[in-house]
Amino acid sequence: MDTAPAPADTAPAAADTAAPLIVTAWRDYDEAACALPGMHLGDLELTGTVAEEADRLWESGVRRVRLADPVDLAETDDLAAARRTVRALSLVRDLTARAVLVEWDLHLDPARPDDTLVLSHLQPPSALHRHPEGSAALATWRAGHYLGKCLWRNGPGFFQIRDRRWGNLQRFTADEPHYRTAVDALAYGTPQESVPKDALDDFTEERLVLHLGPLAWWVPYRVSRWTQEAMAI
Nearest to residue 116, comparing CAs of 91, 97, 141? Predict the structure, then answer.
């Protein structure tokens, strides 16, 4: 990846609305506070795009959500199943970027146990299944999680990814317009063949996309809340 002006953001693909998501929502992070009157918002069915729904949840005061269904990285054989998985992962990613507490269960693909490292920038799941190290892997994820671990941002004429999932800071800067267009396409899942091969190959090599059945999905989040001054990130 090198370094031309980034195009404007594009709207998520229509497929992003194909699978409604059910979540339980509260107005606070703390369990005791969530038990107080007016804090529980009940079960919500999310039928819009993930980007729209994440914004709506945040703006309505939601600070804690629980996904009703587990996310299964092995259930992606057909397009419909892959879309469901990608949609759920996208919600976890977009809410993590807003520092919303997300409770979710993750079922790994047994052939890819290191997906826990690929996804380690996301809010750690409540339960982790099909990992050879079991609860120890989940404990490692929880201990090493912080906001801003793998993010991307637009700059003047370029976009940049900052990745600390592997313990050290790795920075990738690109200015090719088709790389930026590829990010827009990948953000909420897209057929792998629809992404320019050089961009997809580079992103795959750096573990910035996850291949889920016929779809490829963009792993980093676009940061929505800074935990410290931006110059220190």
Answer: 141
pLDDT tens series, the chain, 233 aa? 433 323 334 344 445 666 789 999 999 999 999 999 999 999 999 999 999 999 999 999 999 999 999 999 999 999 999 999 999 999 999 999 999 999 999 999 999 999 999 999 999 999 999 999 989 999 999 999 999 999 998 888 889 999 999 999 999 999 999 999 999 999 999 999 999 999 999 999 999 999 999 999 999 999 755 555 544 44
Structural contact between residues 122 and 100, judged by C-beta atoms closer than 8 angstroms: no
List the domain range (segments joined by +) for residue 133.
14-232
Cβ–Cβ contacts within 10 Å for residue 50, how many? 25
| Total domain count, the chain | 1
As separate numbers, helices (DSSP H) first and strands (DSSP E) second, the chain gives: 7, 14
Q: Please report whether residue 6 resides in a domain.
A: no
pTM of the model: 0.89
Q: Which residues make Cβ contacts (< 8 Å) with residue 82, sequence separation at least 6?
A: 76, 189, 212, 213, 214, 215
In a domain, 9, yes or no: no
Give the residue from 100, 19, 20, 104 showing the smallest Cα distance to 60.
Answer: 100
3-state SS of 165-178? CCCCCEEEEECCHH
